[in-house]
Amino acid sequence: MWISALILLPFLIVFGLAAVYAERKVAGFVQDRLGPSEVGKYGLLQTIADILKLIQKEIIIPKGVDAFLFRLAPIIVFTSVFAGFAILPLSPMLMGAGLTTGIFYALAIISLDIVGLLMAGWASNNKYSILGALRAVAQIISYEIPIGLVVLSVVIISQSLDLQTINYQQGIHIASLIGGESEKNFLFGIAATGIETTQIGGFLTWNVFRMPFLWVGFIIFFIATLAESNRAPFDIPEAESELIGGFHTEYSGMLFAIFMLAEYGMMLLSAFLAAILFFGGWNTPLPNIGNISLATWTSGAPNTIYGEITGFFWLLCKVFLIIFLQMWVRWTYPRLRADHLFYLCWKVLVPFSLVLILLSSVWKLWSF
Amino acid sequence: MLQSAEISAFSIALLFIILGIFFVLMGYLTAWLVSPHQPNEEKQTIYECGEDPIGNAWGQINSKFYIVALLFILFDIEIILLFPWAIIFADKSLYQATQGLWGWITLLEVIVFLFVLALGLVYAWAKGVLEWEKPQPKNSDFQPIVPKKLYEKINEL
Fold it and tell me: How far is B156 from chain A (nearest CA, A)?
């Protein structure tokens, strides 16, 4: 579905504008102040004013920088993040590229933004930029390991790399899947419990309930994606108090805006992936209880207009909830120190996710 | 073998890449049209807290980063190798045709594989590679000429 490319690009831009505003408002309320309130009612037009300013700013390319790489870096960073959006199924019909290697492709192409970050830091010929870029790269490649391992344990449970298949498995429309007519969901994924949830649906068929240890997986995934998008408390690559702006110290105007948009794009992408991998994607959270079939009422069958609208609605609800969580974390926790950061990744998250892989594979075999 | 459906799926992924590059270039073009171009010596100095930059930034870097990259490659290749196993090991028809042997034996193989990798992690851990340099607080041996009593007097104020 090529149309999802045309939907997602404007969506990403509008999201970028809205998220910066939301972020500042959330920050304001967390810190017991108002946040932006001057431009427009409740400061609603603040980020529009900001982006207009950024476009008009002079793009300063200092002497001594590698001008070509300096301009190329934002393109690579933004494009690799945006290319990751290709696999996202937004609703039963809008399934993105529909790659059978979906999540694997996403992990591969998002990793390319490291090249862009390193390029930006190196080309700037600025000591702060190089330090920031190196820290960013070391941090991102470290946290990519727990992400990969957790995604692997979800793949073990769902036996598919295709995000749309993973979506279908987590709801009442599992029979619409090709070859899914005989698929059944059981409570906590164990057939021995005898409680079949295929037609109950709702939150009971989400991956975190098909395999309850995936709650741990979600926490690991959430922490690691925060580090991946260089957000507080993992923002030592751009720690203002020691590194000015990290890898984008020398960037100004539009070039800086692209970096900013890529960061928010990364947030959005990781929220989408978390919602799809753990919380049922576009499936409704409400279960069917006896005659009160809430799940059937609140999620239309695939390939109907009602099904599209409800699917899109539930997915966005989950995504925005996760993004709110990301913002909340940002303004609640202090920045981690570099040695704590590597301690958390290599000595806590990696061993835990290795154990999680074993647990979920045993769980999968037991469920037969 | 790639099916034609798979190829057309990748063409959509390519569309995303092209659209991303196009969007950024359009952004550059708009900014280039709208923004002023008045470079001067001061503006074009590389930022170093307001001082003139000393030397070049393209120098040596801490080798710690190299070791992190090595560890990353080790584990990333592990993940790549595990993905094909993850999709096939609980295949229902294979599982039933072998009375469950298929699933458990492949799982056992992967446990051996993971064990070797975990040994690698333990080795790196024991080697101290995973320790980042910690800041060591140093107590100064500086003896102030001003007697402490004077400070106490000020503090009382």
Answer: 33
- Cβ atoms of A15 and A101 within 8 Å: the answer is no
Tally the domains of chain B: 1
Residue B89 lies in a domain: yes
B107 in a structural domain: yes
Q: Is residue A19 part of a domain?
A: no
Tell me, yes or no, whether A31 lies in a domain.
no
Return the residue of A nearest to B33 by Cα: A56
3-state DSSP assignment of residue A289: strand
Query: What range does the domain containing B100 cover?
Result: 62-126
Of A82, A99, A91, A97, the residue nearest A167 (C-alpha) = A91
Question: How many domains does one find in chain A?
Answer: 1
* Residue A181, domain member (yes or no): yes
Judge: B57–A100 Cβ closer than 8 Å, yes or no.
Answer: no
- 70-109 of B, contacting A, C-beta below 8 A: 71-72, 75-76, 79, 82-83, 86-87, 89-92, 95, 100, 103-104, 107
Flag whether B75 is in a domain: yes
Query: pLDDT (tens digit, 0 to 9) for every residue of chain A, 368 residues total?
Result: 677 778 888 888 888 888 889 988 988 988 889 888 888 888 888 888 988 888 888 888 888 888 899 889 999 999 999 998 888 888 877 777 778 888 888 888 988 889 998 898 888 888 888 888 888 888 888 899 999 999 999 998 888 888 888 888 887 777 777 766 666 777 776 766 767 777 777 777 888 888 888 899 999 999 999 988 888 788 877 777 777 778 888 888 888 889 888 889 999 999 999 999 998 888 888 877 777 777 777 777 777 788 788 888 888 999 999 999 998 998 888 888 878 888 888 889 988 998 999 888 888 888 77
ipTM: 0.85
In a domain, B38, yes or no: no
CA distances from A295 to A31, A83, A193 (A): 39, 33, 22
Per the structure, the complete domain to which residue A169 belongs is given by 64-367
A34 lies in some domain = no
Q: Can you tell me the distance from the alpha carbon of A103 to that of A74, in angstroms, rounded to the nearest whole number?
A: 24
Which two three-digit tokens encode residue A36?
A: 């932006």
